[in-house]
Amino acid sequence: MTFELFLFYVFGAILLGAALAMITVRNPVHAALFLVLCFFTAAAIWLLAEAEFLAIVLVLVYVGAVMVLFLFVVMMLDINVAELREGFTEYLPAGLVVAAAMATVLTLVITRFITMDPPERAGAEYANTLELGRILYTDYVYPFEIAAVILLVAIIAAISLTMRRRPGTKAIDPSVQMKVRRGDRIRLVSMESTPKEGKKKKGE
Asked: Quick one: 47 and 7 in the same domain?
């Protein structure tokens, strides 16, 4: 067993353990942290596969941006885990079907990888970023554009859902709020002073 294969098994075991822990822990913050560990170990495996660009993008984009946003949202919302687990049995059949489909696809990919001939190792002059860009913008340019359009539609839908008017909600217009003057909110009333009850009896 070579040292590279040993590292692959080590990172693969850590990745499987972190993924199982992510879906079994009850605390959402702990689940997000285990997902960060999954991303790091997956990036290490991609480094072993000589896919440096994908490994760096995984760490910078997902760990550095997406997971920070996830942790911020989870910690700010104060999610009630008990309410989320109430409908677990209702969606269990659909979840089992999706899990079976994913397991079937992974099994087919693993068996194909085992039976196929190992690829030749690239030389020192090989640049995977150049090859990735060439394949992405030549052979897969139409799927790439379709994925970009789908993401654009998702962004527009998210913005429209956020900006829609909800009945019963109160919003403040900053421009209107800045135009408010003291005379618009405060009214000074001149009132005659009334003597206290004790002084009134003493004067009588």
From this structure: yes
Burial of 160 (C-beta count, 10 Å sphere; 0-12/13-18/19+): exposed
Kindly report which listed range (96-100, 186-190, 196-200) carries the lowest average pLDDT score. 196-200
**Largest alpha-carbon pair distance within the chain?**
116
Query: Is residue 199, in this structure, part of any structural domain at all?
Result: no
At residue 193, the pLDDT reads 75
* Residue 138: half-sphere exposure toward Cβ, Cα within 13 Å: 6
Q: Which amino acid is at 146?
A: I
Average pLDDT over residues 1-25: 88
Between CA 179 and CA 137 the distance in angstroms is: 53
Range(s) of the domain holding residue 95: 89-118
Assess if residue 145 is contained within a domain.
yes
Segment 25-44 mean pLDDT: 88
